[in-house]
Specification:
Elements lengths: L1 E7 L6 E7 L7 E10 L2 H7 L16 E8 L11 E4 L2 E3 L5 H4 L11 E2 L3 E2 L6 E2 L6 E5 L4 E2 L6 H4 L5 H11 L7 E5 L3 H12 L3 E6 L5 H6 L4 E4 L3 H5 L5 E6 L8 H4 L2 E9 L11 H6 L3 E4 L5 H14 L5 E4 L4 H9 L6 E5 L4
Helix pairs in contact: 4-5, 4-10
Bound molecules: NADP nicotinamide-adenine-dinucleotide phosphate (NAP) and zinc ion (2 copies).
Length: 346
Amino acid sequence: MQSKGYAVLEASKPLVPFTFTRRELRPADVAVAIEYAGICHSDIHQAREEWGPAIFPMVPGHEIAGVVSAIGSAVTKFKVGDRIGVGVFIDSCRECSSCKAGLEQYCTQGMTGTYNGYERDGKTVAQGGYSDNFVVDQDYAVKIPSNLDMAGVAPLLCAGITLYSPLKNWGAGKGKKVGVIGLGGLGHMGLKFSAALGAHTTVFSHSPSKEKDARAMGADDFVVTKDLDTLAKLPKDFDLILNTVSADMDLTPFVDLLQLDGTLVLIGLPGKPYEINTPSLLGQRRSISGSMIGGIAETQEMLDFCGKHNILSEVEVIEPGYINEAYERTVKSDVKYRFVIDTKKF
Ligand code: NAP
Ligand code: ZN
Ligand code: ZN
């Protein structure tokens, strides 16, 4: 299948128009006419090899919202015309305990990434969603509720599920105090979900100008993190803090805000390891954990939750020619709150 999109040809080089082919439909595959693709900070980390060697040419994009344009002979889950979403992975071993538990993202054989990796045949390079079409196995795609705007849905496929999953796993809800560090693409979805689940939600941000938006999205408190003394004076009563910051930072002042048995969940993925002050963990039996996206069933649950509560990502819709500028602005935390490419313009 012929595809048109944008690709990175060499690490850290600007993205350029790119044509390529995708596989013909296998019996369980669906073809997708992509409508919108979100720009995740993980796209930028990989395009710039901030996580180690990458595969080029690379068509990034793992926040994909589109419409089914064709189906393979064995497809039962979708029909032509259905609204469909694809996220960060497109396959997994399907046999290990994680896969069987619906936690395909933690597949012990390794999930198959949507791009910057090989498909399960070990040789076909997977190419992502900054393009006009896509081919995916029906088991690795989800249905988009009919009431939701497609541009605002695309970021839910990564940013949305990545924050929904830890909020559910650690029991965020009424009577719980949740903190979200960083009000970017991931962080603003964490804020919306935490508020919708009924938790008292505090945003920690290094951008004072984002306070008004944060409150409009449901924040009970907004704390500017530039001055660490401000953090030190806050009550140490958080149950859960989700760190979505994409850059290196000092975690200890945030660990110190957790109450007994509270958890700081690492979600942001800067290329460098963190340091942590051990007594901050011992003192109140606090934990540091991590969380990575979510499984297919939970992604569907998240989208249905969004449909019910009318939750969408705040997006700036852009044309393909603006992708490189969007990358620069994302790195400067200058996006409200996710860039989404109108892929119908490729
Ligand atoms: P993003 O839109 O760029 O948001 C990151 C936010 O972090 C910024 O908006 C900013 O918020 C804050 N920030 C950035 N630089 C900072 C600095 N130098 N000091 C303090 N705060 C800073 O990125 P994203 O797409 O949300 O992704 C965030 C991170 O999560 C990335 O590292 C990405 O790779 C990772 N990620 C992880 C998963 C997973 O499964 N765990 C999934 C997707 C992405 P303020 O302006 O409010 O401070
Ligand atoms: Zn992502
Ligand atoms: Zn598996």
